[in-house]
Amino acid sequence: MAWNEPGNNNDKDKDRDPWKNTGKSQIPPDLDKLLKSVRERLTGTFGGQSAGGSTGLIIFALLAVVIWIGSGFYTIEEAERGVVLRFGKYHETVDPGLRWKWTFVDKVIPVDVESVKSMPSSGFMLTQDENVVRVEMDVQYRVVNPREYLFSVTDADNSLREATDSALRYVVGHTSMDDLLTRGREKVRQNTWQVLEEIVNPYRMGLAIVDVNFLPARPPEEVKDAFDDAISAQEDEQRFLREAEAYARETEPKARGQVKRLEEESLGYKEQVVLRATGEVARFNQLLPEYIAAPQLTRERLYLDTMEELYQKTNKVLIDVPKGNNNVIYLPLDKMNATQTNTRKDSITPSLSSTVNNTQSNTPTENDSGTDSVTDSQPLRDSSRTSGRY
Q: Which of 84, 190, 327, 351 is 20–30 Å from 147 (CA)?
């Protein structure tokens, strides 16, 4: 029955009235009895009997062992290698995958061995010719030995940075300004790479240098304009040299060809002169018996043939005019020669224009002395007609 129901005359129920102060204090339950009851319940649950605190300790120990074992599992990524330390000393290097370690005994340090890291290095440096330039270089590397990377030096990355700065200053100090800014950049990059490897290898840092990128060097800002002008002048010099080489390569074959052509022409002219002289000698040898047989006639025919050949090469035309005629006749010789060359007709009909000359002039004529007279109605004498007479 509830304590506040009517007709309840029980004194014990009245004492349970929370709103009524009876003067009696609330006594907390006994903690020992409470702990004892909990142990009994646990013992009953696991089917054992209470034998003091040993059973509870075993249960707590088992739970701690399970937690300890579970905390020992870890995973190494595909691009990593795990360095296992046992009591702070190197024990082994493990491959990627799910692994287990002794908790509080082993310590695992994962190290990335696949990624390529980049380390920049720059600064103002002094060249061999005592010029100050700002040089920048980027070194790319990766880890190849995790154990050496962690324990060979205190800080492998910082050590590599210092080695890079030292190698770069050494190479720049043995290089001139012109080589550093223009044509010697690739050589500077290769020399820096070689010197850097020579510095790093004895320390066994566990690093491998993948590439060294030499960024464009530049002078200080105070003298940048002067250096730009100098570089432009050097570029112009190189351009002029290339143009000169191209011109030489173009002109030299032409000159050699002209020399060869002149040599061939001189040889041809030589052969032509020799053959012509030989032919003339043979011709005179053939004329010699005729000359011995009829000297006067042969002499006259030679004279006529020679004069005919000479007059064909001149613009003069000899005509026979009557005595007492004072007219001076002019002939268009250029048109006559052109007409004779182009048309090759049997005769030439020149158009004559005459003017009256008040003074008496002597006109050269050909008499009956054996020479042929040329008139406007007669064609010029062809030397081919007499070339083969003798």
A: 190
Q: How far apart are CA 96 and CA 79, in angstroms?
A: 8
Q: Where are the alpha helices (DSSP H) in the chain?
A: 11-15, 31-45, 54-70, 146-151, 156-173, 177-181, 185-200, 224-293, 295-312, 333-342
With a CB cutoff of 8 Å and minimum separation 6, the contacts of 122 are 134, 135, 136, 137, 215
Helix locations, 152-222, DSSP H = 156-173, 177-181, 185-200
Q: Is 243 helix (H, G, I), strand (E, B) or coil?
A: helix
Angle formed by the axes of helices 185-200 and 156-173, to 10°? 140
Residues 6+ apart with CB under 8 A from 163: 196, 199, 200
Chain centroid to CA 324: 94
Mean pLDDT over residues 74-93, rounded?
A: 87
CA distance 306 to 325: 31
Q: Dump pLDDT digits (tens) for 270-304.
A: 999 999 999 989 988 888 888 888 888 888 888 88
Give the Cα separation of 379 and 372 in Å (integer): 11
DSSP 85-125: EETTEEEEEE-SEEEE--TTTEEEEEEE-SSPEEEEEEEEE
Average pLDDT of the segment spanning 340-354: 47
Are the beta carbons of 291 and 281 closer than 8 angstroms?
Answer: no
How does the average pLDDT of the chain come out, rounded? Answer: 75
Report CA-CA distances (Å) from 191 to 60, 116, 196, 205, 209. 66, 22, 8, 21, 14
Sign of torsion over alpha carbons 347, 350, 356, 358: negative
Mean pLDDT of 21-50: 56
Confidence of residue 29 (pLDDT cuts 50, 70, 90): low
**3-state secondary structure at position 150:** helix
Write the DSSP symbol of residue 274. Answer: H
pTM summary value: 0.46
